[in-house]
Amino acid sequence: MNPATQVLFVAHTFPPSPEVGGRRIASFCRHLPDFGIRPIVVTVDEQYLLQRDDSFPAPEGVRIERAREMMYP
Question: What's the rounded Cα separation, in Å, for the pair 67 and 64?
């Protein structure tokens, strides 16, 4: 069995965030498994979202790692 190629995305916004940048990455990640590529997304935890939109869910088959938000002075 060949391990799937993995791609790491680091994105501040990702669904359920309603921002366009997060939706674009989610749409791109949705198609990668069709080509044998396993996407992994590192994004902020949902508690740090200013707004939430559950009408555009995160795609199936995408590993999502959520982290706390770091604030800089």
Answer: 10
- Nearest Cα to Cα of residue 18 among 61, 39, 49: 49
Q: Cα–Cα distance between 4 and 57 in angstroms, integer?
A: 24
Burial class of residue 43 in the structure, from the number of CB atoms within 10 Å of its CB (0-12 exposed, 13-18 middle, 19+ buried): buried
| Amino acid identity, position 69 | E
Residue with tokens 């799937």: 4
Prediction pTM value:
0.81
pLDDT in tens, 19-67: 988 999 999 999 999 999 999 999 999 888 888 888 888 888 899 999 9
Burial class (CB in 10 A: 0-12, 13-18, 19+), 42: middle
CA-CA distance, 12 to 26, in Å (whole number)? 12
